[in-house]
Specification:
It contains one helix and eight strands; from the N terminus they run E-E-E-E-E-H-E-E-E. It is mainly beta.
């Protein structure tokens, strides 16, 4: 992922879960940088698609690991994916274009 862009992330879960609610959370240095709810995403079966804005990706810092996790709830049962790590690529021209 590159800062300042508008990527569409496709996350495939190991099982199809009929969540009542869920959150897609991005953290850097222990702080939540981006968080999306089910209203901000689309879900088809076990696939969750998240579209990020320029403002979202500009919050990321290059050279610092970004952690991604989905947590959700079905009734009284709570679920979480394993944490995935990646790095954001830097840009030369800062800001929204």
């Amino acid at each position: 992922m590159t800062r300042g862009t508008t990527p569409t992330l496709t996350i495939t879960l190991s099982n199809e879960i009929d969540f009542d609610s869920y959150f897609v959370t991005f953290k850097q240095d222990g702080y939540v940088v981006i968080e999306k709810t089910e209203a901000d995403t689309t879900r088809e079966g076990a696939v969750i698609t998240v579209e990020l804005t320029q403002e979202d990706t500009l919050r990321l810092r290059s050279g610092v690991a970004v952690e991604l996790q989905i947590r959700g709830k079905v009734g009284e049962k709570a679920f979480a994916t394993s944490v995935k790590k990646f790095y954001a690529n830097d840009i030369l021209k800062e800001g929204k274009i």
